[in-house]
Amino acid sequence: QVQLVESGGGLVQPGGSLRLSCAASGSIFRFLVMGWYRQAPGKERELVADISSGGSTNYADSVKGRFTISRDNAKNTVYLQMNSLSPEDTAVYYCNKNPYWREYWGPGTQVTVSS
Questions:
Q1: Which residues, other chains included, contact 88 with Cβ-Cβ below 8 Å and sequence gap of 6+?
Q2: Would you state the pLDDT for residue 26?
Q3: DSSP for 42-70?
């Protein structure tokens, strides 16, 4: 089985920054397209960004230019650097592969952007 554990969330003021981490178990991590997803209250879970095994990235329009996804295969970890945060970024953030595997959802980490 695979486990994904997100961390790094918290309360931040508008314009602030956070760096999220996703620690993955298993030896197959390096072969997977990994993504960060988020789910705000009343909304469906949406893909925010993903990164291929070779480092190619994609971003949702809403975060492009503000967020950066990266990975360290040696550490089985995916990161999401979030800058210029706004209240619209408030959500629970999850990591998973893309396309996601329902069995791989971790607990998520709460990001709250508020003054």
A1: 62, 113
A2: 81
A3: TS--EEEEEE-TT--EEE-TTTTTTEEEE
